[in-house]
Each structure stands twice: as C-alpha cells, then as structure tokens.
C-alpha cells in the first residue's frame, strides 16, 4: 500500500570525523553492512520498493552501493564469496532507487520537502538511517504501516528516554488510546531540560501523509535556524492527525559513537554470528 520510503542522507556526520571526512556516515558499516542498507532492508520488509534518497555532495558511494558492481561480481562469480552479496543483490533486483540533492543543509524538514519531487502525492515512509532499529518479527516500519492501515494518518515512532536526554529529540505528549499508541496533541523539538512535555522521544521512523509538503513549505525556520519536521507535524497534530507508536524492537543511536559501538556488538552477537 505504501510503496515509497524517503532517506534523508545529506548530513555531514561530524561526530564521526575523521571517518566521515570523505565517506558518507550512512556507509559506516555495522559489522559488515552499511547503516543505510539496514534502513533499506527495513523499508523493504515493510513492503516498500521505491527507495528515495535526499543526498548531498560527496555521497556517491550510496548510489554505487545500490547498483550492480560488474567487475567485482564477475570476479567472484562461481566462488563461495557470492553469498556475501546475496542480500544487497536481492534489494537491487527488487527495488528502484532515486536520488535528489539537498543543496543547503537547512534541517530535516527542509530535507523531507526536498524529497517531494521523488515522492509525489502519496503517503510515504521516512527512515533516518542513524537510528538503527532491530526487531526479529516485523521491522519497526512494518509495524507502523500496519497502524497506518488502521488510522490513515501520520505515524511517528516513539521511545521512552531518560528525562535528562529529552533535549536530543523531538518530544510528544498526547492522549493514550492504547498502551502503545498516543494521539499526539503537543510536540516540541529538542526541549531544554525541565521543559519537555513527557519523556516520549520521537525516533527516526515516520509514516507521513503528503499534505506534509504544503505544511513544510509554509513552516518558518525554527530551532537552530532550521526547518524542523516536528514543527510541521504539530500542524497535523492540531487536527488530531498524528499518532505516536511505541514500537517493538531495539533501537540504537548510531549517530553517536556509544550507540554505534553498542549496535556493532549487538549485531555481531545476534545477527552476524548466527549466520556464520
Ligand atoms: C531528528 C528530529 C528529532 C528526532 C530525531 C530522531 O533530529 O529533528 O525530532 O527526535 O531526529 O533521531 P536529529 O537527530 O536529526 O538532530
């Protein structure tokens, strides 16, 4: 039903310098797979096949990754090494990949608006590849697509975080309509300590309805002088059209060194070793 997924991947990844000086942060490997591939696999698991990327300068290796590598594939054809490329080939064979460039870094809201040309007038998923989500049965985005079927409105993924960490996230408050679902009535982007309406933080998974594009066009720069998706979502929330979902699964903040190392250890123990 929802076919398209948007990946804003234009960011600089400054927290991982010097690794990210000439390599996109989304290509950093968690064990043996780049972060962005985990995201694309999650979208594919959710039934999406049109992968749309909002890229920036110096991000060519992402489009190369989602394309055939003739020389390499010819070299390893008929050897046991072919299995290493099985998963990525499956994605390449079953998905389309489109790209547009965000010329200036003006915030996540601006990145999503830049993706309008690839998405058009239909509901779509958004994955921030920095947030790596692992769930054995049904990816987080798949769980959210199921909720979309029920509510037909914007869905954001949320997680409880310690109160002293709310300044890193968009934070919601609303009416609890099931033990894992809230109808959102308030959203604040990165509230200062003591000003958060709850400890329910938005993490990098969204299902957005396409009216978000017109709202974003009219949204002025907010926190940090950037166009914030959270501010645009607040207009939808005022009409009762945003649900927040406490997903099943584990999420790692791979935008931070600590989270990245935790994700690596977890994936090595729970995914890589069991497939060897
Ligand atoms: C963005 C959003 C924020 C959200 C977060 C999830 O922030 O602006 O609302 O909680 O992603 O990862 P960023 O981490 O890009 O600063």
Derived from helix and strand composition plus strand pairing, the structural class reads alpha/beta
Categorize the overall geometry. Answer: globular
**Biggest beta sheet summary:** 5 strands, mixed, barrel
Measure the end-to-end span: 35 Å
Query: What is the helix content?
Result: 25-40%
**Strand order of the main beta sheet, please?**
8-11-9-10-12
The ligands bound in this entry are:
1-O-phosphono-alpha-D-glucopyranose
CATH-defined topology: Spore Coat Polysaccharide Biosynthesis Protein SpsA, Chain A
Proportion of residues in extended strands: 25-35%
Please state the CA-atom Rg, rounded to the nearest Å.
Answer: 18 Å
Q: What is the H/E order?
A: EEEHEHHHEHHEEHEEEEHHEEH
Number of strands: 13
Total number of helices: 10
CATH architecture: Alpha-Beta Complex
Mean pLDDT: 95
Q: How many structural domains can be distinguished in the coordinates?
A: 1
Task: Write up this protein.
The protein has one domain (4-275): Spore Coat Polysaccharide Biosynthesis Protein SpsA, Chain A. It has helices at residues 35-45, 60-65, 70-76, 86-94, 108-114, 116-119, 140-151, 212-217, 229-238, 257-275, and strands at residues 4-8, 29-30, 33-34, 50-55, 96-101, 124-127, 131-134, 154-160, 170-178, 181-189, 200-208, 242-246, 250-253. A hairpin with a 2-residue loop joins strand 2 and strand 3 (33-34). It contains ten helices and 13 strands. The longest helix has 19 residues, at 257-275. It is globular.
């Amino acid at each position: 039903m929802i076919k398209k997924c948007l990946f804003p991947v234009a960011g600089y990844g400054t927290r991982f310098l010097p690794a990210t000086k000439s390599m996109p942060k989304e290509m950093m490997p968690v064990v043996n797979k780049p972060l962005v591939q985990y995201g694309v696999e999650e979208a594919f698991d959710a039934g999406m096949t049109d992968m749309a990327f909002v890229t920036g300068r110096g991000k060519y290796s992402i489009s190369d990754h989602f394309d055939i590598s003739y020389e390499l594939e010819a070299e390893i054809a008929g050897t046991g090494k072919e299995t290493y490329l099985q998963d990525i080939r499956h994605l390449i064979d079953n998905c389309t990949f489109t790209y547009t460039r965000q010329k200036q870094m003006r915030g996540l809201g601006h990145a999503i608006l830049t993706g309008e040309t690839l998405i058009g007038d239909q509901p779509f998923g958004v994955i921030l590849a920095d947030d790596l989500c692992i769930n054995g049965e049904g990816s987080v985005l798949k769980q959210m697509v199921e909720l979309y079927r029920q509510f037909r409105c914007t869905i954001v993924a949320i997680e409880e975080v310690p109160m002293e960490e709310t300044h890193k996230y968009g934070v919601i408050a609303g009416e609890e309509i099931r033990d894992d679902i809230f109808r959102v009535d308030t959203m604040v982007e990165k509230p200062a300590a003591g000003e958060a309406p709850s400890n329910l933080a938005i993490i990098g998974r969204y299902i957005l309805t396409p009216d978000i594009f017109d709202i974003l066009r009219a949204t002025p720069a907010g926190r940090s002088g950037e166009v914030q998706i959270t501010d645009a979502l607040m207009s939808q929330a005022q009409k009762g059209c945003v649900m927040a979902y406490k997903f099943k699964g584990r999420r790692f903040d791979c935008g931070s060194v600590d989270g990245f190392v935790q994700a690596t250890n977890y994936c090595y123990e729970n995914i890589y070793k069991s497939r060897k």
